[in-house]
Known about the structure:
Blueprint: H1 2-8, H2 12-31, H3 35-54, H4 77-97, H5 100-120, H6 130-154
Helix pairs in contact: 2-4, 2-6, 3-4, 4-5, 4-6, 5-6
Amino acid sequence: MITTFLIEHPWLSPTALALLVVVGPLVGRLVAHRPGAAWVLTGLATVPVVVLTMLPTDRRAFERCEVAWTMPTPGRVELAANVVLFVAPVLLAAVATRRPLLVAVAGSALSALIETVQALVPALGRSCSTNDWLSNTIGVALGAVLGVVALRLASPAGPGSRLTIRPRSLTRP
Length: 173
C-alpha cells in the first residue's frame, strides 16, 4: 500500500528530503539550547519509523531476507523513502545529545535491529532487506551531518567558527 502510494507520487520522497535538508538544520538550531524540546521532536520523528517498519501487515512474509546492495535513487521510490525515514530523528537526536557520531552509529544499529526483527518475526508480514538497512544508514549519515550543521548554527561563536572549549577564569576582571 505505501509502495503503491509512493509509486503514484514519485516526487514525494525527493521533496521531503529537500525540505529536511533546508528546514532541518534551522529547526535543530531553534531547539539546540532546549534539549527537552529536541527530545520531544525526536520522539515524534521516530513515530513514522516505528509505524512504517514494525506495524504488522495483513500479509505473511515467508521468504528469507533479501541480500542486495542497491543504491537509492528517486526512481527507486521505496529505497528513497527509506533514506528520508531516518533523517529527521537522527538530526534531532544529534542536536539533543550534541553527539552526532554516536547518534549515527546508534541509528544504523537501530536500522539493523529493525531488519533483524522483521526477519525473525514473520507474523509482522514484513520482509527484511540489506537494501533497507543501506538506505536507512544513508539517511542516518545525512541526519547526523545536518545535526552538525544545526549545532554549528546554534553555536554562540557563529556558524563559521570552530567549536572550542576554553577554560573559565577563576577571577573576574
